[in-house]
Amino acid sequence: MNRLEGKVAVITGAANGIGKAAARLFLAEGAAVLLVDHDATALDATTNELGSNRAAAFTADITSPEANEAMIREAVQRFGGVDIGRAVAVEGGPGCGGRAQRDTRALPVEPGEPLCRRGGVGR
Length: 123
Description:
The chain contains three helices and five strands. It is α/β, with parallel strands linked by helices. A five-stranded mixed beta sheet has the order 3-2-1-4-5, sandwiched between helices. Helix 2 links the parallel strand 2 and strand 3 (55-59). The radius of gyration is 13 Å and the shape is globular. The termini are far apart.
């Protein structure tokens, strides 16, 4: 099935674990995926392992509002937009109200909207 054909997903925490599994699933379902993680080495390894021309790596610390904006701009530039945001491991910081948070829900993303915003992810 290609339920996500023509869709673009941004997945944070994509270098390992659940984020990596989500990226693999989204690609298998036909989505283009921007994999985001702060660990550049692991992220590059994961992107190469996935071996898809619909996957791209973006290294960022998503606790920064500027990094959130940059990753969305990157997805728009590379793939033409963002349809799905998948925040797998979001830790609190200036962009998240300064307190630790985790959210594993798939989030609809509005153009220009950061995945991590004050008050919590997806609120």
